[in-house]
């Protein structure tokens, strides 16, 4: 079961720090240090040796999953103070794991295409999931991707999962390959939700739900966004700008159309790839 939270605060809880601090504090060799088969083990070793942090890695073909069991995930004031979400020590631990991933991936010859961090509260059964794209790390480090934008590209989820209770070894984690089209679909849905939670728009709109999937070479998005009062902003325009920006930024070509449906009104918009490419 998915916990209903403010996605803006959810993302900010762990990504409040500038990713630039991760890489500016690290020195990376110009030649690869680690072979592909060493990556998972090195991440486990560095987390244990330098941070006394237990992580378990599991790999699929193109994705490395990093699991960390925790006695506590949520802040003491979660549910009371809207600015409090993750326990402060959990935020620090996640930051250390991200630092380690960056160090190893940028020093490896063939790192995986994606990585997922799963931090689980093993006392009450909650999974906190953070998914990133390795190319985004490389672009950030090379200066081609601004750090605030790199932060927005992470997928963040939190789910109640009874199977996480007492799981010290990650037995309830099933590694799988992340497909780029699915990653982009979820990132777009997350960005749309966060956009309508921005201070600029939240007084005019209420974002109840945004979802998406990729099927038969078509991105399909459905949204439930209520208009609270008149505004110069148009829901469809904001959504289209986000979709166009993400697909063009990743230079994704393997699609034909994008469908956008307003669930409340049942109105549907269909845009071709050529049309989206022309939107700035």
**Residues in helix, %:** 25-40%
Number of helices: 9
The helix-strand sequence is: HHHEEHEEHHEHEEHEEH
How many distinct domains? 2
Number of strands: 9
**Uncertain regions: pLDDT < 50 for 5+ in a row?**
16-28
Shape: globular
Describe the sheet with the most strands: 5 strands, mixed
The side-by-side strand order for the widest beta sheet comes to: 1-2-3-4-5
Assembly state here? single chain
Alpha-carbon distance between the termini? 37 Å
Structure in words:
- This protein is α+β, with helices and mostly antiparallel strands and 280 residues long.
- The protein is built from nine helices and nine strands.
- The strands form two sheets. A five-stranded mixed β-sheet has the order 1-2-3-4-5. A four-stranded mixed β-sheet has the order 6-7-8-9.
- Strand 6 (205-215) and strand 7 form a beta hairpin.
- Helix 3 (39-51) crosses helix 4 and helix 7 runs antiparallel to helix 8 (235-249).
- The longest helix has 18 residues, at 88-105.
- The chain is globular and about 55 Å long.
- The two termini are 37 Å apart.
- The model is unreliable at 16-28 (pLDDT under 50).
């Amino acid at each position: 079961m998915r916990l209903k939270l403010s996605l803006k605060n959810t993302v900010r809880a762990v990504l409040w720090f500038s990713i630039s601090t991760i890489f500016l504090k690290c020195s990376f060799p110009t030649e690869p240090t680690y072979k592909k088969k060493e990556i998972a083990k090195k991440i486990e070793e560095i987390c244990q040796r330098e941070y006394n942090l237990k992580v378990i890695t599991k790999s699929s073909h193109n994705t490395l999953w990093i699991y960390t069991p925790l006695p506590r995930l949520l802040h003491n004031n979660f549910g009371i103070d809207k600015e409090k979400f993750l326990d402060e020590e959990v935020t620090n631990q996640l930051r250390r794991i991200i630092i380690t991933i960056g160090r190893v991936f940028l020093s490896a010859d063939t790192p995986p295409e994606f990585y997922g961090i799963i931090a689980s509260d093993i006392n009450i059964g909650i999974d906190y999931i953070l998914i990133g794209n390795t190319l985004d790390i490389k672009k950030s480090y090379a200066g081609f991707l601004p750090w605030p934008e790199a932060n927005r590209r992470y997928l963040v989820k939190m789910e109640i999962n009874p199977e996480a209770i007492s799981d010290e070894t990650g037995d309830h984690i099933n590694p799988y390959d992340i497909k780029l089209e699915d990653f982009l679909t979820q990132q777009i849905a997350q960005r749309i939700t966060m956009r309508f939670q921005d201070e600029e728009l939240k007084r005019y709109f209420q974002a109840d739900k945004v979802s998406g999937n990729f099927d038969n070479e078509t991105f399909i998005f459905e949204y439930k966004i209520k208009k609270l009062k008149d505004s110069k902003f148009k829901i469809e325009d904001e959504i289209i700008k986000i979709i166009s920006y993400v697909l063009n930024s990743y230079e994704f070509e393997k699609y034909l159309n994008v469908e956008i449906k307003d669930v409340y009104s049942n109105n549907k918009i269909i845009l071709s790839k050529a049309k989206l490419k022309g939107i700035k």
